[in-house]
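[Discussion] Sanity-checking designs against the backbone

I'm trying to build intuition for which residues belong where. Below is a structure token string of 83 positions. I'd appreciate it if someone posts a full sequence so I can compare it with mine line by line.
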């Protein structure tokens, strides 16, 4: 299966907020909305996996900020949450 990796390194794998400010360094990712932080490559890999499982009808376009659901996605390895 082919997955477009565009913006996966800037998109929160928890809430799917896409913001270039989420990547302040090459190695680290921190979501400016939910403050989830993890290794940037692991975050991008989680996004690619999710795109493969739940393909977007707008493949190839920058993801929009979806409405926040009542329940977040299940925990992903490497994720740390704020206290």
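Best answer:
Here's mine. Compare freely.
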């Amino acid at each position: 299966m082919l997955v477009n990796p565009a913006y996966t390194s800037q998109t929160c794998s928890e809430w799917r907020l896409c913001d270039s400010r989420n990547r302040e360094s090459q190695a680290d990712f921190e979501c400016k909305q939910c403050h989830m932080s993890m290794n940037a490559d692991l975050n991008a890999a989680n996004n690619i996996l999710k795109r493969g499982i739940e393909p977007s009808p707008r493949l190839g376009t920058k993801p929009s900020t979806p409405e926040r659901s009542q329940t977040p996605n299940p925990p992903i390895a490497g994720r740390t949450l704020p206290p």
